[in-house]
Amino acid sequence: MSLQTHLSKIELEERFSSNEACERQLFEMKWPRGFACPRCGKNHYYTISTRRHPLYECSQCGHQASATASTIFEKTHIPLPKWFSAIYAVFIDNAGYSAIQLSKDACVSYPTAWLMMHKIREGLSNDAQYRFLLGVIGLDEAYFEAPEKSYKRGRGATKAPVSAKTPQDALDLPHAPGLKLQAIEDGEALLKLPTAEGIFSAESSILIRI
User: Is 169 left (phi over 0), alpha (psi -120 to 50) or beta?
Assistant: First the structure.
């Protein structure tokens, strides 16, 4: 799931202040071209509003679908506005948003906050795995090494370098719209680009930073 992080926290809370508003957002994200039955593909449906989360019953085959099914919100008893606020906080907090802080902000127990954070991070990870980077892409390398008494830093180090890929437009922004990391054999692999398969669209322009 992706929220509009250019909204301020006040704007977010005003826009998604109720379960109904959040449900509408989820419905539009799941079916941007209008409802389509997951089973038969038909578009006409009836809304069943007697449950915590509405069900959408296909008038053709009777299959019942939900906007929260197969998402981190499935079967949740936590109000959706609290979920939306937590996702927003994770996106905009540079220092790293913690379960302890979420517990205080959302007025939930620490175990509940921890579970919410786990689901949010898992959802973000799964989303990033299947999303292509688009536009002008910047490639660079970084080395992650454990401190030792004697070791060489940077290029030539024995530790594996990691290539970082991000839309070039994001390089000067506090919150990059896309970033992917991948372990590579050495810095020269950046010039060959085989490691970039499945990372960005074939129509993207590549900028390599050496």
Answer: alpha
